From TrEMBL:
Abscisic acid G-protein coupled receptor-like domain: residues covered: 341-545
Gene Ontology terms: cellular component: membrane
Location within or outside the cell: Membrane
Protein name in UniProt: Golgi pH regulator
Organism: Rhizoctonia solani
Length: 551
């Protein structure tokens, strides 16, 4: 149903302008403040280390250098997503001169995705409390929805393809622009072909472009969220199973950490000495610039040059050893901190909650397997097409019970317990809706638990790229996941929010913003299938990893 057209044009324009101001405020807050916090709190996705300087002092084994200290000449950093490197020299004609580098573009895309997602939720709240006219809400809803769909389906994938093939340190002035864009165009074309191959749910002839894009995005987002949920569920359950089983954490003493620090400091000292020797050797070769005969150059190829090559290889080996030893030391410190925290009251409460969450993750796997088996044997049915008419809750008709895909047992039990609380005005018939929202919240927790591992894996795969490009790719992946999850949340809440009612309409017809969203029941079996497949693959991988490590 379309919006009420009785509102004046001036009211529509003024409310739309005010809402655009709110959009701009959300965009500014995210781009300036939230992303800055994200750089500090995100997991480490870059393992590169900077080199020592010639004037850096030698550290002694009795005074080990702290690996978490910032602002000095230490050449590694752990536990944080590094800030983008903005001091790299720019080439003439580069787009970074106008603020269009990878980092700036990725920050803007993330902030825009965040602001439009928040705008959709603001409009839903405006509909629930009768703020703004129905037509203004509908117009701004369409603007935010189209912007978010274009961002997730077209713009962000295109930027990802460009950044994967982007090599800021290997620019060739002689290479033409078509040759530079050939590889990103190939990646994006393959993505578009895969996207168009996603089947549309329902009657595709009656769908407009936005509805078809939302249907494809819902399928793709359901597969992505199901895959991340399956991975996170098995990882979480496996982690707490190890904590409860015979592989319980062993105690790490201060002497163990001191010994590791001593070994790491000796490696750093050796690396610093080799760097000084390499600089001295390079300075010596620079001073000896007199022309030499063919024989001296030939003999020099087997003396000085070979010595420099061997020294460079030794430095590379020491750097790799230093990185591995610093990671191991950081893991030991984190492990000791977890053991000490587990001995406190807060730690025991946290562990108990983690064990319960791990049990829920394991049960979620069994629940998905049961749903698919019930679907296979015809005991339970999911709808295979979207309904022709959109169910909109109203005082005369409720959408409760329209779903043919009930929530899992744990979420259903939690929803039933919430309905029995005396202070919460909730009918027993609305327990399923509350249970689905609880289930969606738990799925979001599982997805968040797996995002860290996914981003670290992306960093390892793309470690050959520059730091700014890797940071930009991380932001784009987070923006895509955030937008997909928030859209899935809106689809789940489709029958839960009260609609706005037209004051001049005596029939009581409701004008709901959710009428443009697909029904969430259609994608239930897709989520269960992706969840179960990802869980099985993750289980096999963790079991094989344990066997190879002799655990």
């Amino acid at each position: 149903m379309g919006p009420d057209n009785s509102v004046s044009r001036s009211t529509l324009v003024s409310q739309t302008v005010l809402f655009f101001v709110a959009r701009g405020a959300l965009f500014y807050i995210c781009r300036v403040y939230l992303i800055r916090s994200l750089y500090k709190l995100s997991p480490e996705t870059q393992f590169n280390s900077a080199a020592f300087t010639a004037s850096s002092p030698l550290a002694t084994p009795t005074t080990p250098r702290s690996p978490s200290r910032s602002g000095d000449n230490s050449y590694f950093e752990l536990g944080k997503l590094p800030a983008p490197n903005v001091s790299r020299p720019h080439f003439r004609g580069s787009t970074t001169r106008w603020g269009l580098g990878p980092t700036s573009v990725a920050r803007s895309a993330f902030a825009l995705c965040f602001s439009e997602s928040c705008s959709l939720f603001l409009l839903v709240m405006c509909q629930a409390y009768g703020i703004m006219s129905a037509r203004s809400r509908y117009v701004n809803w369409e603007i935010s929805l189209v912007t978010l769909v274009v961002l997730i389906l077209i713009l962000i994938p295109a930027l990802q393809c460009l950044f994967v093939a982007y090599r800021p340190n290997k620019l060739d002035i002689g290479v033409s622009i078509p040759r530079r864009l050939a590889l990103p165009f190939f990646f994006f074309s393959a993505y578009v072909l895969i996207l168009l191959r996603i089947p549309l749910v329902g009657n595709s002839k009656e769908m407009d472009t936005l509805t078809a894009a939302l249907a494809r995005l819902s399928v793709m987002g359901t597969v992505v969220l199901g895959t991340l949920s399956g991975f996170g569920a098995i990882t979480t359950a496996w982690m707490f199973a190890d904590a409860l089983g015979k592989k319980r954490w062993e105690g790490i003493t201060k002497q163990d950490i001191a010994s590791a620090e001593h070994s790491l400091t000796r490696v750093r000292n050796d690396l610093d000495l080799r760097n000084r020797e390499a600089q001295a050797l390079e300075l010596q070769h620079t001073k000896n610039t007199q022309p030499r005969s063919w024989g001296s150059r030939f003999l020099g190829a087997f003396s000085g040059e070979s010595e420099a090559t061997a020294l460079r290889r030794e430095i590379a080996g020491l750097r790799a050893l230093e990185v591995e030893m610093s990671r191991e030391l950081e893991h030991m410190r984190a492990r000791q901190a977890r053991i000490e925290f587990s001995k406190t009251l807060g730690g025991r409460i946290w562990n108990a909650g983690g064990w319960l969450f791990g049990a829920y993750c394991a049960f979620r796997v069994l629940n998905s397997a049961t749903n698919l088996l019930s679907l296979f044997f015809g005991i339970r049915q999911y709808p295979t097409s979207m309904p022709a008419d959109t169910c909109i809750p109203s005082p005369e008709a409720s959408c409760a019970g329209i779903s043919t895909a009930p929530p899992d047992l744990i979420s259903g039990a939690l929803g039933l317990l919430v309905s029995l609380v005396p202070g919460i005005p909730l009918e027993r018939s609305e327990a399923d809706q509350v249970a689905r929202q609880i289930s969606l919240l738990l799925v979001g927790c599982i997805v968040l638990s797996s995002i860290r591992v996914v981003l670290i894996g992306v960093g390892k795969i793309l470690r050959v790229t520059s730091r700014s490009v890797l940071t930009s790719l991380t932001l784009l992946i987070l923006a895509q996941l955030m937008g997909t999850y928030l859209l899935s949340t809106l689809i789940q809440l489709r029958t839960s929010f009260p609609p706005a009612y037209s004051a001049g309409d005596g029939t009581g017809n409701a004008l709901s913003l959710f009428s443009t969203l697909p029904a969430f029941e259609v994608f239930g079996w897709i989520f269960d299938a992706a969840f179960l497949i990802s869980a099985c693959i993750t289980t096999a991988w963790r079991w094989l990893e344990g066997r190879l490590q002799g655990m």
